[in-house]
Structures are given as structure tokens and as C-alpha cells.
Amino acid sequence: MTSSPVSTRKVNDEQSLNQVSPLTNYNLFTTDPTLVTAVERGGATWATAKISELGRILGSEDAQRWGVDANENPPDLHIFDRNGNRRDEVLFHPSWHQLMRTSITHQLHSLPWKDMRHGAHAARAAMMLMTVQNEAGHTCPISMTYSGMAALRAEPEVAKSWEPQILSSKYDPSFAPASGKVGALLGMGMTEKQGGSDVRANTTRAERIGASREYLVTGHKWFCSAPMCDAFLILAQTANGLSCFLLPRWTAAGDKNNFFIQRLKDKLGNRSNASSEVEFSNAWAQLVGEEGRGINTIIEMVNHTRLDCAIAGAGLMRQALVQALYHCCHRAAFGKLLVEQPLMQNVLADLVLESEAATQMAMRLAESFDLRVGDEMQRAFARIATAISKYWLCKRVSPFVAEALECLGGNGYVEDSGMPRLYREAPLYGIWEGSGNVICLDILRALKKEPAAGEALLHELHLAKGADQRFDLFTNAIEADLNNMKKSFAGSGQEGQSRRLADRLALALQASLMIRHASSANAQAFIASRLGHDHGANFGTLSSAYDLGAILEPATRTFSQI
Question: Cα separation of 510 and 389, whole Å?
Fold first, then answer.
């Protein structure tokens, strides 16, 4: 590995030795070879220039400042105006609007619905994976708008009236009737006080107005994401059961809807984003899908949002790794650069393997969203891989970021490094759109009710069979267990063991992808450390049998030269 001179900089006219300058003005896309090749494999080479341009912007000093400012100046709720009238408006720092404008201009909210070329989901996934590395909070309304379109199309007439604004690449932050705006964003409200994941316990009610598909909704939502969106997909009870509705901020007549923000949540991370509690009092809404089938209707929005959770997990890992690699390439201790110290090499190499496998998994999942149109096997694969990837990547990201932060030592614990913001953000995606237990039960549900899902997963694993005996033995055991499960799905013991199953399915899928798409050194080390017993409980416990230099050199090449 090539040594780099220890960086220096002037501070108060004194020379500050051995301090690493911030990593700025680099391209998040071109410095990530795993992501570049995944885009090519996903059929999105037509979008490479667009993706690279966004990678350049996100790595700029200006964009990095937008992320910092948006988090240091969180949104501010104004419930009343000066005369005591309801205002219900959230104000954001200008940097938030810069971030929103950048993402919408690059169509992160709309690309697969607007550009029907093959690879659109993969192209968007690559851009989302980079965007969360810069500032993840603003991706909430971006993600929900993208996801909401999938559900909204269950009601063609409603979708037709909203699509021109939703698919617009112009950001319009004005608080005005949707009909007078250039663009529009979608939010979501599912959970209530009495039941988070148990949405069937919802008490919000919707009453039909005459014989139309218009309703008046009364109730509350304990979590309503991004309350300044223009319309929200919500769940409410009707005479025929839980149903899905589109509830705009403005009525069809252009009047302000009876949508009242009660407070903003004071959250651990995701500080730039406004998460709220809201109430409805005879708020006007339109039915989406069939009455009584609200979960079936909104599930497409949920699935696409879970895809984004998996992407976010991989993105946060990548940025934490980048910061650790860059720091260790330029910081010296005990006479050597940190990246030259044997134990640090083990830690960094282990993180490289984890991040690469995460990116491979997220991008393969996004690719399946492209391929599933007209391909039942890909549809079945997407069904189960969404749950597996969401569960695994969102579980792995928190310990990963903690380890990467430690690579920076005390500097990593200081806000200036940016690592604390990544660390606070990391737990969110394991909770958003289903906590770990909910997702594991969803995996069981898919295997039980949709046999094609399990078959599609095994088909994906078999693509790597024969390349490594350890992988073959691991997947053979999984296949035997899945076959046995088919005979005894009624047993309650399966629920209690579903995390063990989810772990193994995730590792097998990642190993399959690493065998097919990673270097031999990386694939071998990943399989040995993840599928067998040749690894400790923490990162940095790779066996001495593997060439850590072969793993690290490609990963550090760019950052040692910046």
C-alpha cells in the first residue's frame, strides 16, 4: 500500500500536525467501484452520466454544508397565525430546500414512473444510496413520493389527476393548493397511538359522502411523515373494514383541508425531517383501491419504502466506511499511517467486505424491481428479498457505523467529523416500515403463503453453486430447512426462531452475490468469515489466512491520493 504524507493545516497561525482535513470535493459514484459495476449489471448504463453528476454534487463542499445546516437547524412548527387561526405549517432551513431541489431535479422521487427504460429502479437506487450519504432526513418525503406512486396507481382516475405534479422535476415548496403548484409530494400516515405495526387496530374512521368515492375522515395518526407534503396515503376504517385513502392538504374546492398538526417528534436522529402527530376532523379524502382492502392497496407503497430502507442501510455503511478509510489513509500513529497498522487493516478489511456485500444486496434488490415486470420469478424474488434485505441491512448498519466511528478515535465522537450524525441516523431504518420482528414474521408469511417466493430465492442462490464448497453446504442446509418448514408451518416455534432463519437467508444471498460479482479475495474472505466459524463476534477478526492487502488496496487507492 502506498504511503501518503501526513496532512497539515494552519490553525490560528500555528501548524496543526497529524490532523486530517475534511473529505470534500470528491465524486461519491466514481469512487465506489462496487456501485459502478452494479449500475452496469442492472441495465442502467444509460443513466451513468446523470448518476455521476449527482455523485459530484453530493461530494462537494456546498452540498455537505447543506446537510450540516439542515440538521443543525431542524424544522419549526407554526400551529397558529398571529390572529389565532390555524396555520399548521412547518418551516425549514434554506439548506433543506436546496437538498430537496437537488433530489427532485435528479428525479429520485419519480424516475421509474417517468422513464420506463429498463434499469430505472437500479439507476434511482444508486442515486438514493449516494444521497443518504450526504443527508438522509430529506429523503423521507422523496422516498414516500416514489413509493406512493406505486399504490396510487391502484386508483387510475386519482393517479391521473396527480401524476403531472408528482412526476414534475421542479421543486415547489409553496404552501398552496396542489392545483396551483408546479410539483407535488406524497406522505403517509398508517400508525396510531393504540397500535404501531398492528394497523388493524386503527380507530380513524372514514364516512362516504353520498354515492361517490369521496369520504370524510376523522381520527389521528401517531406518526405522519413529512407533514408538509401535498397529500397523504392513509388507512382508515369504513363499514367494510380498513381502507386506503388519499388525503390532500387542500380540498377539491381549494379550501384548506381539516388536517391539523399537533406536534413534531423530537427524534434521536433524522433531525432535519419533520415527523409529526396529526389529527383529522371530517377531512376530505378519496378512496384508493377497494373498501376493506386498505392493507393490500398500501402494501405496494410499503414494499417500495422497504426497498429504500435497505438502500439507506447500505448507503450509511458506505459513507461510514469512506470516512474511516480516508482518515486512516492520512492519520499516523506509532510511526505509521493507521492504514498500515496490521490490526487496523483487519478492521478496515472487514468493514470493506460488509459494505460491499450490503451494496451488492441493495442493488440486486432494486434490479429485481425492474425485472419483475412480466417475470413472475423476479416478482417472487423481489417479494421475499425485500423483507430479507430490509431486515438484514438495517440490523447491520448500527454496529457497522459504530466500528467505523471508532476508527477515527476521539475525532469520530465529535460532531465536526459527521460520524455522530451517521450514528444517530443508523437505527431509524430498522424501525421505519416494520421493526425487525415484524419483518421476520413477514418472511415467514411469504414462505408460507407464496411458495414461489422461496423457490425464487433458492434459484438465486443456486446461481453461485459449485464455486465454493462452504457455500454449497450452507445453502443445502437452508434448502433442507425450507423443505421441512413446508410440512409444519402451523408450529408456533417457527415464529420464535424466525430471526435465525432471516440471518441465514440474508448471509446466503449476500454470499451468492459476492461469489458472482466480487473479487476472489473478497468473496473467499466473506464466505469464510460469515458462513463458517472463522470469525469473532466483532469486526476486525478476519483470519490471518486471507490477504488483507488484496481486500484493502482497491478500497483505499482513491482515498489515499485525495
Answer: 9
Q: Which residues contact 445 (CB under 8 A, 6 or more apart)?
A: none
218 forms beta bridges with 205
pLDDT one-digit tens code per residue, 92-137 = 999 999 999 999 999 999 999 999 899 999 999 999 999 999 999 9
Q: What percent of the chain lies above the pLDDT cut of 70?
A: 96
Stretch among 351-355, 469-473, 479-483 having the lowest mean pLDDT? 479-483
The closest of 441, 435, 482, 436 to 458, measured between CA atoms, is 482
Question: At residue 413, what are phi and psi to the nearest 5 degrees?
Answer: -90, -5
C-alpha cell belonging to residue 461:
442462490
Find the angle CA(227)-CA(233)-CA(235) to the nearest 5 degrees: 110
Q: What is the DSSP letter of 418?
A: S
Contact criterion met (CB below 8 Å) for 519 and 356 = no
Please choose, from the candidates 387, 386, 398, 394, the residue with its C-alpha nearest in 3D space to the C-alpha of residue 430. Answer: 394
Tell me the average pLDDT across 301-305.
96
CA distance 384 to 554: 33
| Euclidean distance between CA atoms 230 and 249, whole angstroms | 5
* Residue among 202, 430, 241, 224 at smallest CA distance from 233: 224
Q: Strands 186-189, 231-238: parallel, antiparallel or unpaired by DSSP?
A: parallel
Contacts of 254 (CB under 8 A, 6+ apart): 177, 179
Q: Residue 219: exposed, middle, or buried by beta-carbon count in 10 A (0-12, 13-18, 19+)?
A: buried
Torsion angle of C-alpha atoms 313, 74, 104, 262, degrees rounded to 10:
100
pLDDT given at position 13: 44
| CA 423, 147, 217, 433 torsion-angle sign | negative
d(CA 559, CA 328): 9
Give ∠ CA 301-385-448 in degrees, rounded to 5.
Answer: 95
Residue 547's SS3 state is: coil
> What is the SS3 assignment for 181?
coil
Identify the CA nearest to 164 among candidates 187, 189, 181: 181
Nine cell digits for residue 401: 457505523
- Kindly report the pTM of this predicted structure: 0.95
- Strands 231-238 and 241-248, by their bridges, are antiparallel
Q: Quick check: helix, strand or coil at residue 470? A: helix
Residues 6 or more apart whose CB falls under 8 angstroms from that of 230 comprise 165, 178, 181, 184, 185, 186, 248, 249, 250
- What does the pLDDT read at residue 176? 80
Q: Does residue 6 contact residue 21 with C-beta atoms inside 8 Å? A: no
- Evaluate if residue 2 carries a pLDDT over 70: no
Q: Using an 8 Å Cβ cutoff, are 547 and 523 in contact?
A: no
Q: What end-to-end distance do the CA atoms of the chain give, in Å?
A: 15
CA neighbor of 396 nearest in space, from 442, 441, 350: 350
Helix (H) or strand (E) holding 166: helix 156-166
